[in-house]
Amino acid sequence: MSSIHEQIDSLRSSFFQDLKNSFSVKDIENLRIKYFGKKGSIQALMQELRHCTPEDRPHLGKLINDLKNDLVSHSDHTFERLLRQETEDRLEKEWIDPTLPGRKSFLGRIHPIHQMMDKVLDVLIGMGFSVRYGPDVDTEHYNFGGLNFASDHPARDMQDTFYLENGWLLRTHTSNVQVHVMEGHAPPIRVVAPGRCFRNEDISARSHVFFHQVEGFYIDRHVSFADLLSTMNDFLSKLLGEKVETRFRPSYFPFVEPGMEVDVRCSACRGSGCRLCKHTGWLEILGAGMIHPNVLKKGNIDPEEYSGFAWGMGIERLVILQSSIPDIRLFTQNDIRFLSQFP
Ligand code: PHE
What we know:
CATH architecture of the largest domain: 2-Layer Sandwich
Order of helices and strands: HHHHHEEHEHEEHEEEHEHH
CATH class of the largest domain: Alpha Beta
Distance between the termini: 88 Å
Bound molecules: phenylalanine
Strand content: 15-25%
Radius of gyration: 41 Å
Number of helices: 11
């Protein structure tokens, strides 16, 4: 076996050979492990001291230590140089021009439909209603049957309603929430239900296959038709302004009796007649009525003891009328030029 001195010399020369062949920070890291690691060459050489005489050990140990310090300082030096080099190379490659103008980012806004929905809900929450969200996908029972639609009612037709598999459908109005709420709650009930509705219609400037409604209903003892009229007046003046003028016309919906439609004075011509109101001076704004006794009965509410009213309104229509939107499709085209007009 060669002497410690010889081994020191050969370790030194193999180290410098390796150092010469190190061209990257990674190479130096490997070199450090190879020579200075726990299982590295220096440590192995230290182990050799066991075979030396106790008198030689301190002297030889010092030699190995000096060797180690020397090699460490060489490798550190090369490491610094390579690291500096690599950093400079990277900065060169990833150079950015700080004088370029920044990219403009757009701030999102709330969609006009949701702005209007929030406005409607704010008013009604202030009037003591609480919000319920019904399912968009529902059954014929909740959308029609529970609402007193006869089994041959034309609205049940495939032409008007999107049917899914196994008796499911896309709700055609938010009135389905009435049935859900009556099923799970006893009066007094004072609920407002906003949401999306779907109808199988041709898409045009005036109609779309989906739109939004807000439904309101109130069930308690002694709820009268006069309560309905005053609530509608109160609600519409809070929503559209104190001076709004309303008109109530009889109308038919299977789930209310009597039923009516509510008009407001045309906002564009103030009643003198224009294209927006089709020269009637009035804009139809919602459907309403006293909840039909059959609907209460199906909802396990005794119509002898309780009565109630309900109304439903289209949100798209409200925005169209208020902001003179020429085409309902604008709401779903995500055109920033349109949407940014509703700050
Ligand atoms: N659900 C009716 C519609 O979609 C609106 C309505 C709701 C009418 C409640 C009367 C009472 O047209």
